[in-house]
Design a protein that fits this description.
Structural class: alpha/beta
Largest sheet: 7 strands, mixed
Bound molecules: S-adenosylmethionine
Oligomer: single chain
Shape: globular
Amino acid sequence: MVNEKIRQFWDERAGLGGIAGSNDFLLKNLELDLLRKRIPENAKILDVGCGNGQTLITLIKEKNCTGVGVDFSPKMVELAKNSAAQENLDAKLKFVEGSLEEIPDVGLFDCIITERSLINLDSEEKQYKAFLGIMNHLKNNGRYYMLESCIDGLERTNELRVSLGLEPMSAPWHNLFFREDAVAKWASKNYFLEELYHFSSTYHLLSRVVYAKLAADKNEELRYDSDINLISCKLPPIGNYGPAKLWQWRKCE
Ligand SMILES: C[S@@+](CC[C@H](N)C(=O)[O-])C[C@H]1O[C@@H](n2cnc3c(N)ncnc32)[C@H](O)[C@@H]1O
């Protein structure tokens, strides 16, 4: 059973264009850059929790892939379909209404993506079940790029914030962040964790600690597009700060 309050929340955000999936558009850009570098040309991609479809549309255009996007928000799916039609991508791209709890029968894929979707499920049990459902849609040797959030990275960032006199941050009401050690146990003989990549560590360290402190001291309102935030995205990841991570899974049956 899907959580109707959370579905309504995402339905209401659907019209927000580039920030429908997150107000933090720099984080979204980091995710997109990472996927661009890792997804091979011509891959068949499934995006679960695809939102308004922008990630799939970008990858289909830039890497000649084909894809299916699944989301439980009817408005997100409608907008994704409209965008695909406007870009003349109907032959390569399909958007379907469906849930993480019960992924529709859409076939097998070379690559599967989730971007901050599983964290919308409110127990670790449901998240693990959704993970197994995703793995069932992966071809042998295929990869699952799990871009999700963990509490450990948030806690590490909060330690630094508190040491500078800033308030700790918490996960949004509709999210349950993973525990890194719990996710590591999801590996089995049929799939393994190829890499845990702290891709947004520098961005989180500089934006949520350094910039946040400077802005607080000057009594300035926080901006996602501050100069420090923009520069931080150009640096390689240092450390393991921030909640957003890539868990890269490989199927090996
Ligand atoms: C953080 S947004 C990300 C959207 C898109 N991937 C992006 O990066 O812009 C999470 C998406 O997951 C979808 N979602 C959340 N819970 C879901 C569920 N149980 N089943 C299917 N989709 C879900 C939401 O509707 C939303 O579009």
